[in-house]
Amino acid sequence: MKPYAVIGAGPMGLCTVRNLLKLGIPCIGFEVHSDVGGLWDINSPTSTMYESAHLISSKRMTEFADFPMDESVADYPSHRDMGDYFRSYAREFGLYGHYEFDTEVVQCVRSGDGWLVTTRRNWQEKTREFSGLLIASGTLHYPNQPELPGQYTGELIHSSQYRSPEIFAGKRVLLIGCGNSGADIAVDAVHRARRVDISLRRGYHFLPKYIFGRPIDQLGGKLKLPLTLKRRLTKALIRLSLGSPSQYGLPEPEYRLFESHPVVNSLLLHHIGHGDINPRPAIMSVDGHKVHFSDGDYEEYDLIVQATGYKLHYPFVDKAELNWNGHAPSLYLNIFHPKSDNFFMMGMIEAAGLGWEGRNMQAELVALYIHQLIAGAPSANRFRKVIQQKSAKRIDGGMRYLDLERMAYYVHKDSYVKVIKKHKADLLKDLSPQALTYQAGGLQATS
Fold first, then answer.
1. C-alpha distances in angstroms, 250 versus 187, 200, 204, 245?
2. Residues 127-156: pLDDT tens digits?
3. 210-237 residue pLDDT tens
4. Residues 6+ apart with CB under 8 A from 233
5. What is the Cα–Cα distance from 215 to 212, expressed in whole angstroms?
């Protein structure tokens, strides 16, 4: 059997390779950088990381279940801690030897029952045939950078280009957008810039990182609360600890909590309350260094940072192969193509609290499915029918997520994990006893 190609050596790519190997499925990973870590390796040419970046979820809610982070690591690890973590993960499970580093994937095209993958290393291209293709190249690489309404003559960058607050020294700075990166960067700018403003077109829900001295995502422990009750409790605690956005001169969100990704950052509100950051409404027009806002006011800026998010981008494969529909590919569980048994989108998912273990569950399910397909198992045929029938079904748990590009692949964690576990259990029913044993809570291939 020809190997499977895995694109990317970030956390999703690493656990994908690991799970394929557990079931004896040969694979080769490709990584454009010289080491593992993906987004979390700030030295990678595809990383959009910045020096002050930390996880916005706590380490215990983010780590792989069978590879916990060290107790010495902070509750909210820095990108350096995360880079060390993924390198340790790759060493622990012997993944380095299954990757080709400093290797760019140039093109992937179907060829009969397989895929032809063309890679480039040291300016030399090579084309090889693979049994299947697993894309784990991440979702936060290609900037969404809308044109400004007018001609701006100052410095303009996207948040993906930001690395260090040194660029703000002595400048009048405007941040556009208030996702988690935008909030972080605005706080960074306070300590160097002459002036910091932030422009918001809509309202956001803000969460503190700690409640009662514990990371907010650990609130309630293992207790599963109904969504309505969880929303009410969380909202009450936020109002008690932070107040409402309007108290800081920010617009109130016109959607319910968890219907869009919240901003886990109370320092932004702290600095707004101290007059260090000035909220601004939507931009109406720009002219030279001058920016006019929807409230009729205007201000001049030396630097504008567009914290306007990212677009899904897979330039090495024809979009027609992805079953793309609207803002994102239409795939069952955000993974499985309704007409292809050898194409898998790994990690095209966001969900509050899913963490790396949720992505590892994706990888386990895909590896099981591939193994059972090869074995001709009835469970694989059953799963194939589900994929074909439900590729357009979103696992949203009844949530009404905002119709935004970055929310197009958002799922409800508990509902998603429940479905993953159900399919995994069915695929395991007719798995050969010789294929695996259970070790450390995961699948392990036997010799």
1. 16, 8, 8, 5
2. 999 999 999 999 999 999 999 999 999 999
3. 998 999 998 765 567 777 888 888 889 8
4. 220, 225
5. 8
